[in-house]
Write a structure and sequence with these properties.
Four copies of one chain form a homotetramer.
Chain A lengths: L2 H24 L6 H8 L3 H7 L3 H26 L5 H18 L1 H10 L2 H9 L10 H12 L6 H22 L5 H19 L8
Helix pairs in contact in A: 1-2, 1-4, 2-3, 4-5, 4-6, 4-7, 5-9, 5-10, 6-9, 9-10
Chain B binds a DNA duplex (21 and 21 nucleotides) through α1 and α3.
DNA sequence: AATGAATGAGCTTTCATTCAT
DNA sequence: GATGAATGAAAGCTCATTCAT
């Protein structure tokens, strides 16, 4: 990569990072492109060299941040291996919830904007060259290990994702209707139930 | 009610109805107060006699529309009585999904804006004098009939609501990852499972 | 005066009083006719039955308040009679400055809006029926007593009024360039000097 | 200075000049920012690149115009040197009154808006780089020449300024209570008197 | 006489986008 | 590639005034 390209990448990242900070503190609507450019230290016109408009940078950010979320969870899983498939899923779910508790601005930003379309892209293509061990890779690995034992793995994952993210939102951000810590047992129990519905053979207990 | 008050109510409703049409066709952000007033056939200033700003009318609309959704479902339930508690819930869930399939603009509008806060208000207070048979009433009736047999009814309902609404969104609007009709059996099975988790005594089968 | 007329007068005074409070706290520009009517407890339309517009009520207020200022000063003078003509003037000047120190909102309101035109009206006509012992009366009494000894009494009074009011403004409100108490000796000395310029025969010292 | 900066300065001046014309003909309140921008031949948004709001441009104008007034008077004084200190002051006072008679719109604008705060700024700092021979310089020169002979020069100047400006206002604009030409002798006499109050040693007559 | 709902022109301000430099 | 001055449409909101009741 040439020095010029490096500088370009640096500028792009600076814009992304600044946009994220502003989006999560002031909200997407109240953040202007001027704000982003000013704080990133580039001219307003320069913004348009890297992104089409605010929606463009927003979508790229959501994908990027969601991917990071999963990546971290999978990394953690590798450090603390779990026996059964169900335990692995629960571990990942728990880890992601904990990350979101720590970073509520991120939760607010992601879930107000996440759509299945963006998510699907992550799983099936992944941003080229971004992460070698992205969601796509992790997902494929899981399928290769357990896929044969699952009825409709895609639907199952879709349902777990939607269920967990939507059910955690309010308890984390507003402690409503209960604290997230009090809800966790309920969430895990339901996730286990969902998985069981799709397993041809239950997890083996040794 | 005097003739003046009648006219006021009429104007208020006209503004609400117009706002809903514009919000669901153009989106909230792209709808200006001018648009609403123009199309409702009143002056811009008149809008501000009835609502504080766009957020105000939006929130009032969401509550109103969500309430209607549940009301219709409960009405239908009364016409086709179901035996067990679980069957009743599934019936309502199914009915609401069907309504949303028929009225996707409503789904788009509601779910982008619904928050547990608004929802809670509906259940626990209800807009006074609006509907005698609102969500609040329906909810109370259910609790009085089955509540004793449930472990944490509120959490259970919260989880079912979040699960159903989040999981149905994408299939209805974008047919992703599967058609809603193909997902329905999965949804119902999981709802049954969730309910079972909270029942002290399972539904009686006669 | 009939009961109806009484009520009307009451309403008028209520509007005047409310307007004054709002003008002096929020400023004339930031006070709307709605504000005045609301707070005076009458309908917006009623305002227009008593005053032409905001400028009308403003002018009437300035005249009224200025007159009160002089009236109080003259009253005080009668309780503490002064020997010479000059001493009387100084006494009145001092009393008015003290009133304005006590009521800075009044100073701000009056001097931003007072014009010689309004002032002249007070002296030469007086608002009919408002005060029997108004500025006009006081002014005439002074002229009748000392007028023969003065070269151009009107010009003299004009100059003293303008001098005192303009020179006191900033020291009272902003303590700039000096405190009003420190400026007073300077003011009095100059007022004495101005009077001396117009006296045919100096004050007699007994 | 680059061509761009030149154009910017030009635009700024165009806005200032246009604002002054509108403020003095229609009044500040009745002049909208649209008016200013339109007539200056720039877009409304452009106004906000140069000034924060209407108050901002108004204050900048008052300072600027007041400074010009004094500058001209001091220039004239240099062409017609006066012997004594008092004569110099009277000369300047007379010159300024004459300027205001010629430009009554300016008088209307300045004196309705001038405050001691703005004035003080002019004397003690002056806008950097604007005028080499501004008020500040003129003031300092006077002090260096006569200051030792004056008791409280600042208070004296404050009183003269306030006296002259307030006393001239109505006669110039409304010929009330007398014509300015008829009032001038009175004004000058009083100014002489004020000065005399502060001089340790009277003007020498050769 | 009193009301207050309705009006709509008009205000200030923002901001995505363009384009000459 | 980068800049940032300029644009001008469009937004939200206010408020003096009218007029049917």
């Amino acid at each position: 990569m040439g020095r010029v390209d490096e500088k370009k990448l640096q500028k792009r990242n600076s814009l992304l990072q600044t946009a994220f900070e502003l989006f999560t503190t002031k909200g997407v609507v109240n953040t202007s492109i001027s704000d982003i450019a000013d704080r990133a230290g580039v001219a307003k016109g320069t913004f348009y060299l890297y992104f089409k408009d605010k929606i463009d940078i927003k979508n790229k950010l959501i994908g990027h941040k969601t991917e990071k979320l999963f990546e971290k969870a999978v990394e953690a899983l590798e450090k603390e291996p779990q026996k059964t498939f169900t335990d692995k899923v629960i571990f990942v779910v728990n880890n992601i919830i904990d990350q979101l508790v720590e970073n509520q601005a991120l939760l607010l930003f992601i879930s107000k904007n996440l759509s299945w379309g963006i998510f699907k892209n992550l799983i099936y293509s992944g941003e080229k060259g971004t992460s070698e061990q992205g969601i796509a890779a992790a997902f494929e690995k899981i399928i290769s290990e357990e896929g044969d034992n699952l009825e409709s793995p895609e639907i199952m994952f879709y349902m777990i994702c939607e269920f967990v993210s939507s059910v955690s939102y309010s308890p984390i951000l507003y402690k409503e209707p209960v604290l997230i810590d009090d809800l966790k047992p309920h969430i895990f129990r339901t996730v286990r139930n969902i998985i069981a519905q799709y397993q041809k053979v239950p997890d083996k207990t040794e």
